Write a sequence for this structure.
């Protein structure tokens, strides 16, 4: 499956504030978390949408399997 490529700047706009979409990236894959009640207003605990969360996940109380329930919208360039 071919995914659309987005730059970090394009991802940053999908923070729930600049644009209505709420996206996050993990290991180069961009997920749409807009429908998650835990990402309301583009914030999830101390994490902000529109960013690559790869470096932050080890400190989270969950594993990367949490992303399995979200739609993949693209990949980071």
């Amino acid at each position: 499956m071919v995914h659309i490529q987005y730059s970090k700047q394009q991802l940053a706009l999908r923070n729930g504030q600049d644009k209505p979409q709420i996206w996050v990236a993990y290991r180069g894959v961009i997920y749409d978390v807009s429908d998650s009640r835990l990402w309301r207003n583009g914030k999830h605990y101390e994490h902000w949408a529109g960013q690559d969360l790869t470096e932050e996940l080890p400190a989270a109380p969950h594993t990367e399997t949490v992303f399995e329930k979200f739609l993949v919208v693209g990949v980071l360039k």
Remarks:
- The chain has a mean pLDDT of 92.
- Residues 8 and 51 are 7 Å apart (CA to CA).
